[in-house]
Amino acid sequence: MKNTAWRLVHPVYALGKASREHVFADGRFHYAGDQIIYAWETAELASLAVAELTGGITPRVMLREKLIFPDDAQLNVLTSRRFILRVGAQDTLRHMRQRNILSLWIPSELYASQRLVVIDPLHKAFDQILVGDSRFLVCRDQKLAQAES
Question: Which of 84, 86, 108, 112 matches a 20 to 30 Å C-alpha distance to 30?
Fold first, then answer.
C-alpha cells in the first residue's frame, strides 16, 4: 500500500488546523459534529473529487497537501466497499476508533483502482502524518474570466 495521499482544501483547513475542526453536516462516512479528514490516493483523484463535491464551485485559492503516513499496517487499513456496507457508511469513523485505525483506505467510487482515505484526527498517531508537499493553487473563476474578456 502507498503511504501517501492528497488533499485539496481551503487554506484555513491546512492539516494542522483541520484536526481541531468539526464538520457541520452529516456526510458519507461521518455524522455532524465528528472530527474527520478526507484525502485521496492521488492528486488527480483529489481534484476530481473536490470538483464533484463542490459542483465545480471552488474558492479562489486552494491548498494542495501531500500527506505521508506512518508505515504501519495496523494504523493504515485497506478495506472494501462491501465492508463499508456491512459496517454502515456513517458508522465508519466510530468503527475506526473502536479498532484504533488512523486511516481507512476505501476504493473510490470515482475511480475504482484508487482509494479515498478517511483519517481520524483524534487518533494518537495523527501527529505522525507528515505534510510532504504543500502548495497554494490559484483557481480561476470562470465568470470573472468571461467578464474580463
Answer: 112
